[in-house]
Design brief:
The protein folds into three domains: 204 residues, Jelly Rolls (Sandwich), CATH 2.60.120; 100 residues, Phosphorylase Kinase, domain 1 (2-Layer Sandwich), CATH 3.30.200.20; 186 residues, Transferase(Phosphotransferase) domain 1 (Transferase(Phosphotransferase), domain 1), CATH 1.10.510.10. The protein is 23% helix and 18% strand. A six-stranded antiparallel β-sheet has the order 1-2-5-10-7-8. Strands 14-15-16-18-17 form a five-stranded antiparallel β-sheet, with helices on both faces. It is built from 16 helices and 20 strands. Keywords: ATP-binding, Glycoprotein, Kinase, Membrane, Nucleotide-binding, Phosphoprotein, Receptor, Repeat, Serine/threonine-protein kinase, Signal, Transferase, Transmembrane, Transmembrane helix. One of its GO terms (molecular function) is ATP binding.
């Protein structure tokens, strides 16, 4: 029992050139590979000991013995509940003594891996201890367990010395290992009874598993066997021609630290989003889908495969999904910066200069044009708004949540009483009649463009009465020929021609009739200056009468015919999903507190 209450098991088995052993009870497995070069007795130095007391510790007994390996030494923690763990590795250099003798010239250098990931390169115990031997060094790391076992690997990479203080005296060395969960276990962990004498006698390497499920299986063999077994879930998916990447639920639990609230990035209409780190080191955003899909597993996976295949620089990348039982999760790329609404009028605004704002408008338009007209699967986003436009490390815009509406039962995802919460983004024909085409996305883009131009949300009751509603104010300024009065006053400078262009394009996009709104490809051309911006002749009827004119055969025009595949299934939608900007925290980007400096010409143009 250590000073912190940890109970250690002893590791004093005889390991030689290529051997392993498993503790009893089965909690740990240890394997060793290699023989010491030039050693007269190759079995002598696998365990080293010293009666010299180590400094910097209250647990002297742990540091009087150590296991050493000539090449590769692995420890496997078995039967662990999946999740994140804290691994404590304790070292003391007891084989190389301090100066002034020549034996102190020896150097022990090795690499350390956790779950096959390199965490320490050229690790030198004595160097870590300030150049002193017989000094405890404690290192702690956080690592995920996804298949009920943990692998700790010490590897000698041929560095350091090999003949000091004697031939065959080199390789990684470890005194004690302990592992504890970074979550509340769902099962008990009662350590086996053992007498104090057995704890004190022959203690070589102390090891304790933080959570032991009582599994008496060598986890490596179990894991390999699981890969061979085809369960019912897999059988259902075997017939699919194209399958998306899949993640296990336990893997995503570990990545997000059991969906810890500290990792919560935001919560939208489809469900909460958590920051996570996958086993391979990738940072991801994990979205838990709350509304049950009406699709079967294979149908759900097929739709995810389609959405995953839709890739473009201005679209958030979907890495894959998890589907276990009634659980549905999506795994997206992780973006460093906030969503656009938080960037331009949130509490911690980013310093977006005019060039950045213009590129955000242009990039968003290109992303929507790709969804509507260029992708092999034509997708109507249905919920274009500034909170669904995310910013990457270089403040490039990326459209999120496209294609998700196809995954859900229409009756469960439509709203009625809360539609007014986001009326500022909803096209009138969609809000009132439920008629959905890509022209509804064009309307939403027009509102976003005005928000970016003005630096304010589409509705703000704190402003003067004539400025509360952004669309109304914009049309009033247009009629008064004071368009540039809409430009965000915090901008120190801006391009006059580009600002007028954005303003004019936005007014075209928010026309009442969908037939009068340009397709997104033309929006891109107008913003880029390739074609002239058409002049707007009249204020939309929804701003003058607060009611909607009858919309007739315009819905059957050629623009609508392009909305095939995913979008055609959406044309009968009655209302929009709830996404009240006052209550919806947007993400998939981090909510950073760090300032983003004002930069110039940092956004690349992509055509």
């Amino acid at each position: 029992m250590s000073s912190d209450g940890t109970s250690y098991d002893k590791d004093n088995a005889t390991l030689t050139t290529a051997s392993y052993y498993v503790t009893n009870p089965i909690k740990w497995a240890v394997s060793n590979t290699g023989s010491f070069a030039g050693a007269s007795n190759p079995n002598t130095n696998y365990i080293i000991s010293s009666q010299t007391l180590s400094a910097n510790t209250l647990d002297q007994e742990l540091f009087q013995t150590a296991r050493m390996s000539p090449s590769s030494l692995r420890y496997y923690g078995l039967g662990l509940e999946n999740g994140n763990y804290t691994v404590k590795l304790q070292f003391s250099e007891i084989g190389l003594i301090d100066p002034p003798t020549w034996k102190s010239l020896g150097r022990r250098v090795f690499d350390i891996y956790l779950q096959e990931k390199l965490i320490e390169k050229d690790f030198d115990i004595r160097k870590e201890a300030g150049g002193k031997s017989f000094t405890a060094v404690v290192k702690e790391y956080r690592t995920p367990v996804t298949n009920n076992f943990l692998e700790i690997h010490f590897f000698w990479a041929g560095k350091g010395t090999s003949f000091i203080p004697s031939q065959g005296y080199y390789g990684p060395s470890i005194c004690a290992i302990s592992v504890s969960p970074a979550f509340i276990p769902s099962v008990s962990n009662k350590a086996p009874n053992s007498s104090s004498s057995s704890n004190k006698t022959g203690l070589i390497v102390g090891i304790i598993a933080g959570v032991v499920l009582g599994l008496v299986i060598f986890a490596i063999l179990v894991w390999r066997q699981k890969k061979k077994n085809v369960n019912k879930d897999e059988e259902e998916l075997l017939g699919m021609a194209v399958r998306p990447n899949t993640f296990s639920y336990s893997e995503l639990r570990a990545a997000t630290e059991d969906f810890n609230q500290s990792n919560l990035l935001g919560e939208g209409g489809f469900g909460p989003v958590y920051k996570g780190k996958l086993y391979d080191g990738r940072m991801v955003a994990v979205k838990q889908l709350l509304v049950a899909s009406h699709h079967g597993k294979s149908q759900f996976m097929a739709e995810i495969a389609i959405i995953s295949a839709v890739q473009q620089r201005y679209l958030v990348k979907l890495y894959g999904c998890c589907i276990e039982g009634d659980k549905r999760l999506l795994v997206y790329e992780y973006l460093e910066n906030k969503s656009l609404d938080k960037a331009i009028f949130g509490k911690n605004v980013l310093l977006l200069n005019w060039r950045m704002r213009f590129e955000i408008c242009l990039g968003t338009a290109r992303g929507l044009a790709y969804l509507h007209e260029e992708s092999s699967v034509k997708i109507v986003h249905r919920d274009v708004k500034s909170s669904n436009i995310l910013l990457d490390r270089n403040l490039n815009p990326k459209i999120s949540d496209f294609g998700l509406a196809k995954l859900y039962d229409d009756k469960k995802t439509h709203i009625s009483t809360r539609v007014a919460g986001t009326i500022g983004y909803l096209a009138p024909e969609y809000a009132m009649r439920g008629h959905l085409t890509e022209k509804a996305d064009v309307f939403g883009f027009g509102v976003v463009a005005l928000e970016v131009l003005s630096g304010r949300p589409n509705s703000d009751s704190t402003l003067e009465e004539d400025k509360v509603y952004l669309l109304d104010w914009a049309w009033r300024l247009y009629e008064q020929k004071h368009e540039l009065d809409l430009v965000d006053p915090i901008l120190p400078s801006y391009n006059r021609d580009e600002a007028i262009r954005v303003f004019g394009v936005a007014l075209l996009c928010i026309q009442a009739s969908p037939a009068l709104r340009p397709p997104m490809s033309r929006v891109v051309a107008m913003l880029a200056g390739d074609v002239e911006v058409n002049e707007v002749t009249s204020r939309p009827s929804y701003l003058t009468e607060w009611q909607f004119n009858d919309i007739s055969s315009n819905f059957a025009n050629d623009d609508c015919s392009r909305s095939t595949s995913l979008s055609t299934a959406l044309t009968n939608i009655q209302t929009s999903e709830p996404s009240d900007p006052s209550s919806t925290v947007t993400y998939m980007g981090i909510d950073p507190s760090a300032d983003v400096p004002l930069r110039h010409n940092s956004i690349r143009e992509g055509r």
